[in-house]
Amino acid sequence: MMPRRFGRTCPLFVLVLNIAFTGKECVVAQPTGQDAERGPVQVIFDTDITGDVDDVLALAMLHTLADRGECDLLAVTISKRHPQAAAFVDAINTFYGRPDIPIGISTTAPPRESRYLSLVDRRRPDGTDQYPHDLRDDSDARDAVELLRQTLADADDHSVCLIQVGLAVNTADLLDSKPDRISPMTGHDLVQQKLRLASIMAGAFGPVGSNARHLEANVKNHIESMQQLVTRWPQSVPRIWSDFRIGIAAKYPRRSIKNDFRYDSDHPVRQAYLRYNGPDHDRPTWDLTSVLYAVRPGDGYFGLSDRGVVEVQDDGFTTFRPSADGPDRYLTMSKPQAHRVIEVQRSLVSQPPNLNAPSRVAD
Questions:
Q1: What is the predicted pLDDT for the residue at 30?
Q2: I want to staple 131 with a disulfide (CB 3.0 to 4.6 A). Which of 91, 233, 300, 317 is the partner?
């Protein structure tokens, strides 16, 4: 189980890191006419929602962005095994008015304990669910690879953004999947034809404090699958990486947990945060930054590195090799950008659900 304060292995003094790059590495992401014309971003959210609570905050963000008509949440797949994980995701989706979003679980992922998933078992005095949900345990959920294949097969070409904020087991298994009753295409070909972008939280492409060889958790906890992702990925589909240094420099403020959820003292996101951190901790927003970039790539919250190729070594260390035709870029963030990111993420996470929002996948 991860340590309480810095589950992804970071010294306390590392608050804002050396990620305000200069020169070619600090190209600010700019809006394009194509981005403006796409309409809501079509999102698959692949999460290891069991350990750290930033996955919960990121899922809340996606629902708020969907309420605003900025994205459609097509499916959620889970990349760690816990008997309450699917039920918890279903409860969050139901809380935000989207109870029919399909949820898939991995059959190959490692198990993980959780401090907050048991919230899903809370009952009201009358015995009903505190947080209503239809999925009672993981056996009620779909197979993650089957769900990924179905979602991509049903999508328009080059229309889907995969946001991966945990282990790469589901993505690696998807890439390895063969033609079946869902689609005559291989998983590799479905990714190549249906995805327009992958926004990935993983890696560390520079020193973390004095540690020049930081092994980031989403990589080191399942190295083989991340290696498969980087080596078997279709080169025509861009991958944007939010590495460890970004989230640690944009922490979710504890004052938001104290003040911004007063409209519902039992808000499941607030309760999950308190169970994981307690009230006196500003949690890094690793996973949230991948969501923010994926849905609002042209709003200037981040810069982008030049193009290159991400490589994963056998111990889980990630490197970035510049290459003009590589599929990879990673986020950069200046101190002024970090302030903007913190405030916008706070606003999006804590916004009350709009149960009358037009963006409902099940409609």
A1: 43
A2: 91
